[in-house]
Design brief:
alpha+beta, 4-stranded antiparallel beta sheet
């Protein structure tokens, strides 16, 4: 078929389905209905990063969270993304980061760099709060999941710190 006669809506539908699949597997969106997830899809922003490109720097104001759609990124400490002092995590498809920035604009606690060409989905606080004004019940559901996730991560961090403390005392 000649490209001029192809279905121009097919690609948009496929992209929407991809976003639905990705969001439905992120813990803060699990349990939401398809209709509820569509509300979040409407506020998603796609970003593309080349290998070595910094997504954000430690100390920058947090404006939103990112979900890795394709590729791989590293969360690191240090000034040089090519030679980081410490790599806290390597994240790939389906992983997410920066979710605390949905709650406030405190400075980022680490930097993030693309380890290979990557596509990330951004959800930013102003869009999210606008959605919550329109759909407060949806806001309660999502923020409840976010609070649960933050609590689980805090418990994990506390356990890891306690283990380090005990190793230091022996």
């Amino acid at each position: 078929m000649h490209p001029i006669w192809s279905n121009i809506f097919k690609e948009a539908k496929n992209q929407s389905e991809d976003l639905y699949q990705i969001l439905s597997n992120v813990p803060i969106f699990t349990g939401l209905s398809r209709r509820e997830l569509k509300e979040f899809i409407r506020i998603c922003h796609k970003r593309t990063y080349q290998q070595g490109e910094v997504v954000f720097w430690k100390g920058e104001p947090g404006v939103g969270m990112y979900i890795v759609q394709k590729g791989k990124v590293a969360v690191f400490a240090g000034e040089d993304p090519q030679n980081p002092e410490i790599v806290f995590a390597t994240l790939s498809e389906g992983d997410f980061l920066g979710e605390l920035a949905l709650l406030d604009d405190t400075p980022r606690s680490a930097s993030v760099v693309a380890l290979e060409p990557s596509k990330l989905i951004g959800i930013f606080r102003p869009d999210l709060f606008s959605l919550f004004e329109r759909k407060p019940g949806l806001g309660v559901k999502m923020l409840s999941k976010l609070a649960q996730l933050v609590g689980e991560r805090l418990k994990f961090t506390n356990d890891a710190l306690e283990e380090c403390r005990q190793k230091g005392n022996t």
